[in-house]
Amino acid sequence: GMQSHLQALLSLYKLFCPEQVTITLPGKMKTYFKNSEGPWKAAMTAVRQRNQGSSPLSQAMFLGTPQPQSRKRKWNAQLVIPANSKNMSYLEEDRGKNSVCLYSTHRSFPVEQLQTFPQLLQNIHCLEFPSQMGSVLTNPLLLHYMNCVKDESIYLRLYFWMGQMLQEGCPWCVVDNSCEEEFKSFLETIYKAECFLQEGFTACEEFLYKTLPLWDGFCCRSEVLRVVSWIPLSSSSDIKSYLYNSLAQLFFTSSIYFKCSILESLRELLQNWLICNVVQEDLEFSS
């Protein structure tokens, strides 16, 4: 049948292989597929305008999202635990004169007062994560807490924040972005947190898979390859299509130093996979 999504798929086939589609398609139809050439056109336009000395593009991230507004705050402002770290107030329900506190028995320990490991052990049942999830990355005690308390909401909050920060600050995805040094520092902080936890972040994996096809192999090279070494273990088909194919294009056209850097990163990736797999098997065996 001529459903709109099938028409869109047929129009895509007709664009690349017109001899395969012989039927007549309507001129106007709903767009289901983005133009794959968009990022490259935006990149070439940005380079052309930069070489001509004209004003930078007002449009565009290469990934298809609007360019973020200029950030007046520094990146590392998100990595410091705020003075008032409670991220939500207790819910109270007023019923006439009787006010019922739904968490009246709950006692929370302020995260900003957490200084020592014994304090963590004594208050681990009543800790509340800070409103700025980025501060977790630079706090070993909170990273210990993440390892002990497998709370999905903690990881969801951290991954959402991290994904936004990576996308907004990526120098090779945002037109005329001059925050490369800050982005290097941010990637280094993420890498240190991954080494501490001995596992990679899903937000980093998604970021790398989206942006490696646009990476020039030079910007933030050592930091990117370090984060690559902590990609979580996935199926071989995903690793090949999203990681190896993107790196191969750079590998065969780069210097011997870059080739060695990629091989070293992949060696560390394999080593980390083996370590994680051994730990998982030990846990299953002990249980």
Automatic annotation (TrEMBL):
Transmembrane spans: none
Annotated compartments: Chromosome, Centromere; Nucleus
GO biological process: CENP-A containing chromatin assembly; mitotic sister chromatid segregation
Recorded GO CC terms: inner kinetochore; nucleus
KW Plastid (keyword) present: no
InterPro entries for the chain: CENP-I
Family of the protein in this entry: Belongs to the CENP-I/CTF3 family.
PANTHER family, per database record: CENTROMERE PROTEIN I
Stated name of the protein: CENPI protein
Organism: Thryothorus ludovicianus
Source organism phylogeny: Eukaryota, Metazoa, Chordata, Craniata, Vertebrata
